[in-house]
Amino acid sequence: MKISRRMRKGYALALAFLLTLPCLIRIQTEAATAIDTSVKCSLTVSVGSSDYEEDFNEMSIPVSLYKVADVDSAGRYTSVDSFSQVDLTGISSTTTAEEWQNLAEEANQCLSGAEAVGKTVVEKPESGAGEAQGVFKDLAVGMYLVVPEASYNADYTVKYEFTPYLTALPSSEYAMTGAGSDDWDYNPVIGLKAGGDPQYGKLNITKVLSNYNETLGRTSFVFQIEGKDETGAVVYSEVVSTTHEGAGSETVTLDKIPAGLDVTVTEVYSGASYTIVGSDSDSAFIWSDPAVEAGAGEEASVTFTNRYDGGNRGGYGVTNHFISDGKEGWDWDNPTTQPEE
């Protein structure tokens, strides 16, 4: 399995968790024609033109719809039910995007006890043709809150979070863009904007000693782990070790490894007086923790076996960890240092 183009971009830019509010509709109460309040509307949620369209077209994204307000023929809104405290009386052609966002956040805080007027799933049609979309039908005119559910992409390497937002039925090209026709559209199409949160997984490295020389005492084994992207660039690198005081197995687990990577584990030091049995290198695919929890993949694991070779050289080691100081320097991560309070 390969990492999606969106994930590669995420690694390169240290993808931050950003939520971009969709272009919210500006209601024009001065429309040329009155709203026909008897018309039933539809609302299509589409992934077209999204920055993450490639991923979205392979996903199933649940979306709920809540009616926040009624509207009269003149375009005046009256909040209803659980949203009665959301004041929409001041919205107009001068309402700013920030004000729309604040109203949407206020409405989103009223969801407790609110009942969705519709639910759909944004996904590709069964035929596989066209872009992923979901449709709400038979809707009364009014103001609605669109609430997409956080969802993972197909290989669980990214979790997408969506910002709930308000949309009006009907809308118009002029209301949305400030230009074009001001004829009311009772069947608009809206998009999805999201922030992608890269996911991480674990790797278990197990060292098995088939026999052990007690006279020589403890012995250590060192492993180099590297993960490369599709261009061959190293995007993950780590060194870990295991120390043994007898025959049997020891396992070290690494976490926070970018999901979707194929990693190569190489035993770079096989312990004093011990010989590796078989290959000194193995590879594994890193499934994210949510993928493992969902049963879509398994936690990555590799195993190496060594045996005593009859030598008389003893010795073991320790692994030092360093943390970037953000200024092209490194600080030693002392495990014995107590955190500052």
What does this structure look like?
With 341 residues, the chain is mainly beta. The chain has two domains: 7-198, Immunoglobulins (Immunoglobulin-like, Sandwich), CATH 2.60.40.10; 200-313, Immunoglobulin-like. Helix content is 11%, strand content 39%. It is built from five helices and 21 strands. It has helices at 5-13, 53-56, 97-108, 173-177, 289-294, and strands spanning 41-46, 61-71, 77-79, 118-122, 133-139, 142-148, 151-152, 158-162, 165-169, 189-190, 194-198, 200-209, 219-228, 234-244, 248-258, 262-269, 274-277, 281-285, 300-308, 322-324, 330-332. Strands 2, 3, 4, 6 and 9 form a five-stranded antiparallel sheet that branches. Strands 15-12-19-17 form a four-stranded mixed sheet, with no helix packed on it. A hairpin with a 5-residue loop joins strand 2 (61-71) and strand 3. The longest helix is centred in the first third of the chain and has 12 residues, at 97-108.
CATH superfamily of the largest domain: Immunoglobulins
| Oligomeric organization of the protein chains | single chain
Briefly note the structural class of the backbone: mainly beta
> What is the second-level CATH architecture of the largest domain?
Sandwich
Separation, N- and C-terminal Cα atoms: 44 Å
User: How many helices does DSSP assign?
Assistant: 5
Shape estimate: elongated
Q: Please give the largest β-sheet.
A: 5 strands, antiparallel
What value does the Rg take, in angstroms? 28 Å
User: Quick check: average pLDDT?
Assistant: 83
Share of helix among residues? 10-25%
Instruction: Tally the beta strands.
Output: 21
Mind telling me the CATH class of the largest domain? Mainly Beta
Uncertain segments are: 1-30
> Beta fraction of the residues?
35-45%
CATH topology of the largest domain: Immunoglobulin-like
Number of domains: 2
